[in-house]
Design goal:
This protein is of the alpha+beta class. It has one domain (about 5-65). The protein has two helices and two strands. The protein has helices spanning about 5-30, 35, and strands spanning about 40-50, 55-65. It has a two-stranded antiparallel ribbon. Strand 1 (about 40-50) and strand 2 (about 55-65) form a beta hairpin. The longest helix has 29 residues, at about 5-30. The mean pLDDT is about 95.
Length: about 70
Amino acid sequence: MSDDYNMSMRKFLKQVGVTSQQAIDDAMRAAGSEATAGKSFTATMVLKVDGLDLEHRVEGTIHGRGDD
């Protein structure tokens, strides 16, 4: 595959990872450690690509924040 394709793919995935972590961190912080400590949260990420017949779903668990 082309270098342009690889670079655009890596840039997109890095943006997804960084901005998703920031959004989760912000939500955890807003909820407060009392509401999140010791709890687990199911997270779902859905990737859709316009122009391709693609809908990719990833599910996982995020453990709540403690005191920090």
